[in-house]
Give the backbone structure.
Amino acid sequence: MPAAWKPDGPIIVMTAAAGAGHVVAARAIEQALRRRLPDVEIELLEVLEWSNPFFRRLYAQGYLSLVNHAPTFMGILYEAFDRPNQRFRDAIRTTFQNMNLHVVARHLRQRRPALIIHTHFLPAEMVAEMRRRRRLSCPHVTITTDFETHRMWAQHPTERYYTATADGKAYLCTWNVPPDDVLVTGIPLRAEFDPPPDRAAARQIHGLEMTRPAVLMLCGGFGVGPTERFFDELIALPPTVQLIVITGRNERLRQRLATAADRRGRDVRVVGFSDQMHTWIAAADLVVSKPGGLTVSESLMCGVPLVVVNPIPGQEARNSDYLLEHGAAIKVNNPRLLGHRVRELLDDPERLAGLRSAARILARPGAARRIVSDALNLIGAPPESGDQPAFIQNPAIARIGAPL
């Protein structure tokens, strides 16, 4: 990138902290932008931080409460908002949102950004409406963060959409998004994952033995869901299995699981929030987790198959289906079977190798770099040496059911 080129204003990456994955994807894009444009002002804007406390609790905490206590209702809402002829409902919802995000809108008008990049549909919807009302004129692009898409991601006008899969693109196009405006890039990951460390190096970092299998249980960024039920099953695995549990920002959960491991006399690594997810995942033979879009993408990048548990009805259920269809995961429906299914896999090296191979095929390296390159091209940035095309089709996943 020539040093002389600069956009006419800052580049703003917008997200919402309703689930940890959207923010992680936004930070990956911010990281890629700063590497590409070290002298340009880049702002990461989490819109719920700018809203009033009532709306922030309603949106973020309400989401977590539904996930934790009423996942079935969460799925009903997901499907209800994914239907046509929603004009009246959308008008009520967007009016309420705009009332609570007016400070964000004012900030954008004052900042006059050259480009806006979204990793959540909430700010994408707000900016699209500002564009329609001629209150903002800069281009904006949207990165979807699951393996299928949803109607609410389609916001007109938007210059570009970046999806995880060809299915995600096809679905957006059913909502009148022009096919040329959608690029299948994969979900952006932090540079530490691209490429990830090899297994030997990752295990050495954490003091794990190479000759013993390692199972990593992820509790999500906020440690919600019936994690203790899954932990009780995994802790009964043979002592030859190295068990690691990451509880995210839920410190109470970390303490409860560590205490439970001590009571059972089981050597378990119970970790809270960690900025070393790339090494923990790379070190594992299996990841036991809910199938959030970012978690899935990180595991695939490391070539580690998933044991899917407790997917949220809606987006996570669809992520799970995608992995199962392509042979990169197994799903455990009943917690009582979790230990049994994990033992089966660890005792079947050939099957485990097949799952690992499928995971590598589904991985899409370089997503953050390709997204940034294409988005900057929209505002006239000259190409950087070594730029890759934004869309790289892996022939092994060109269609559902392709042989792996």
In short: DSSP finds 17 helices and twelve strands in the chain.
